[in-house]
Amino acid sequence: LNSILSGEGPDVWAMPNDWVYRHQAKLQPLVPGILAEFDVNKYIPAVQQSIVINDQVYALSPSAEPLMVYYNPKLFEAATERVNKAYEGREEENKEVIEKAHRLLSEPPKTWTEFTETVKLLTTKNGGNVETAGVAMGTEKIAHSADILYLLMMQNETSIISDDMKLATFNLPRQTAVGQEDYSGKRALELYTSFANQSSPNYSWNDALGNEVDAFANGKVAMIFGYSNIQNYLLQKYPNLPFQYRKTFVPQVGQDNDSIVDYARFTAFGVPNISRNPVMAWKLLNIIANDHADVLNAANRTYTSHAAEELKVTMEERVAGDPEKLSLVKAKSLVKGRFPIEFDNQFRYAIYLVNRGSQDPKSALDLASINITKLLTRTEW
What spatial distance separates the first Cα and last Cα of the chain, rounded to whole Å? Predict the structure, then answer.
């Protein structure tokens, strides 16, 4: 960024996808005709949402990372054993309860309803203290707390920002099909924070357990949310991990295949407007985002083009394994305006206020909405 401002910057600039909107004035959009047969519509929704501004393309990307759930199968097995032991000698009269628990623990949860029920089975407590957490979720200190909350809001059809990017709307009600008002943003925040609320049946996590990835590696938490960079962290810091972790899809609101919503992030490659070789730079980006993508995707399965659209994603297919490929087909991203870091911090602060009991979820989101609207309409840097 400093080199670009000095006038001696590069021809290609890599940045987080939510920086593209912030720095669009420093980027040269793709001029029609430079790239033959270029079609932005072939990219997945998450990429299109971030790189297209006012019908102009400001960046490209060869790959993306979906938000995923990492889980410890050994803790699922331990929970199954606890269920069996709890009902030992009383199996017949508790047959339905046992069968339901076995079903929930036989594979990672696909819906949020299954997720909350599974978390209860996975969590162990000693009095009010959590010994083994079912999930690391609920506080602002969770690494991707804001992203998880955005996911929940999107899945509940919350309008987060107005189309003109001038007003935060996640605190406002939406009209349901039967004409009722639904504060879906508030419900999303309530669900997220319930996992850190000691008075909630979902209570599973508090920050005394430390960093969630380290807690996961040490067998203190059964499930964590994260991106693919967790794999490198675990490999480097815990090369002799005592269990084989697995990855799975994030839970969905229901079983409807048409309502599947995932969340993704990626590195966007743009051409600074000071480039002395903009045509060649865009041609290079096209190679990176398309030809080279085949190499990346063969290794990582992180498709950004709609070659993946041929895949028919169903809830039945959302099972344990490598979720990267199928998750990205319908993954969305969030354009946060010119101040993306401050935008995320407002959501983390809303989580903090609810956790501390300073405000209820609606009031916390009302405050965040006021502050984010100020960010969206701020003209100075």
Answer: 14
Torsion 164-166-167-170 (CA) sign: positive
Around Cβ 295, how many Cβ atoms within 10 Å?
10
Residue 343 near residue 375 (C-beta atoms within 8 A) = yes
Q: pLDDT tens digit string along 226-256?
A: 999 999 999 999 999 999 999 999 999 988 8
Positive or negative CA dihedral for 52, 53, 57, 60?
Answer: negative
Q: Which of 250-274 are b and which e, b meaning 16 or more Cβ less than 10 Å from the residue's Cβ? A: bbbbeeeeeebbbbbbbebbbbbeb
pLDDT of residue 308: 45
d(CA 73, CA 82): 14
pLDDT in tens, 94-103: 999 999 999 9
- Determine the Cα–Cα distance for residues 161 and 202; give it in Å rounded to an integer: 29
pLDDT of residue 303: 52
Residue 329 has pLDDT above 80, yes or no: yes
Q: Is 90 exceeded by the pLDDT of residue 295?
A: no
- Digit-coded pLDDT (tens) for 122-176: 999 998 899 999 999 999 999 999 999 999 999 999 999 999 999 999 999 988 8
Q: What local confidence, expressed as pLDDT, does residue 13 receive?
A: 94
Whole-prediction pTM: 0.94
SS3 letters across the chain: CHHHHCCCCCCCEEEEHHHCCCCHHHECCCCCCCCCCCCHHHECHHHHHHHEECCEECCECCCCEECEEEECHHHHHHHHHHHHHHCCCCCCCCHHHHHHHHHHHCCCCCEHHHHHHHHHHHCEEECCEEEEECCCCCCCCCCCHHHHHHHHHHHCCCCCECCCCCCECCCCCEECCCCCEECHHHHHHHHHHHCCCCCCCCCCCCHHHCCHHHHHHCCCECEEEECCHHHHHHHHHCCCCCCCCEEECCCECCCCHHHCCEEEECEEEECECCCCCHHHHHHHHHHHHHHHHHHHHHHHCCCCEHHHHHCCCCHHHCCCCCCHHHHHHCEECCCCCCCHHHHHHHHHHHHHHHHCCCCCHHHHHHHHHHHHHHHHHCCCC
